[in-house]
């Protein structure tokens, strides 16, 4: 695994997120309180596009069925909102992030 340059710090304002493609993977990078975090962009329930979801604080909600993940850790906060069904949903894979000048690098 090595660090790959994915974008510029200026591309992700504080309190927002953006999807990037790195080595065939979709990675979601978020800026929370001026610190950058990276997790897998596809929901572990039904592959919903998390970058199209809603970010509140450090929690992103999948637009497909409402699963919630902490973007700082990748941990599942709550599963999909499907009545009468309780599903086992996995955490998101988390990636190490570092900054080099104006660039965001992710270890993939």
From TrEMBL:
GO terms for molecular function: 2 iron, 2 sulfur cluster binding; metal ion binding. Residues 4-106 form the Rieske domain. It comes from the Archaea. PROSITE patterns: RIESKE. InterPro entries: Rieske_2Fe-2S, Rieske_2Fe-2S_sf. Its cofactor is [2Fe-2S] cluster. This is Sulredoxin. The lineage of its organism: Archaea, Methanobacteriati, Methanobacteriota, Stenosarchaea group, Candidatus Methanofastidiosia.
């Amino acid at each position: 695994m090595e660090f790959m340059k994915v974008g510029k710090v200026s591309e992700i304002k504080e309190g927002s997120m953006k999807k990037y493609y790195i080595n065939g993977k979709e990675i979601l990078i978020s800026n929370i309180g001026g610190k950058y975090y990276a997790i897998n962009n596809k929901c572990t329930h039904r592959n919903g596009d998390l970058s199209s979801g809603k970010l509140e604080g450090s929690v992103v909600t999948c637009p497909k069925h409402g699963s919630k993940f902490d973007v700082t850790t990748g941990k599942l906060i709550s599963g999909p909102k499907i009545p009468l069904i309780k599903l086992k949903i996995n955490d998101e894979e988390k990636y190490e992030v570092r900054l080099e000048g104006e660039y965001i690098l992710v270890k993939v």
